[in-house]
Amino acid sequence: MKTYLITPVLLLFAVFTHAAESVPPDAEAQRAQLQKLVDSIKPQKGNIVLGDGLAHASLPAEIEYLSAADTTTVLVKLWGNPEGGRTLGMLVPAGFDPMSAGSWAVVMTFEEDGYVKDDDAAKIDYTKMLAELKESTRDASKERVKEGYAPIELVGWASPPRYDAANKKLYWAKEIKFGDEAEHTLNYNIRLLGRRGVLVLNAVASMNELRVVEAATPKILAAVNFREGHRYADFTESTDKVATYGLAALVAGGVAAKAGFFKGLIVAALAMKKFLIIGLIALAAGVKRFWSWMQGRQAARALDAPPPAA
Question: Is the pTM of this model over 0.85?
Answer without folding.
Answer: no
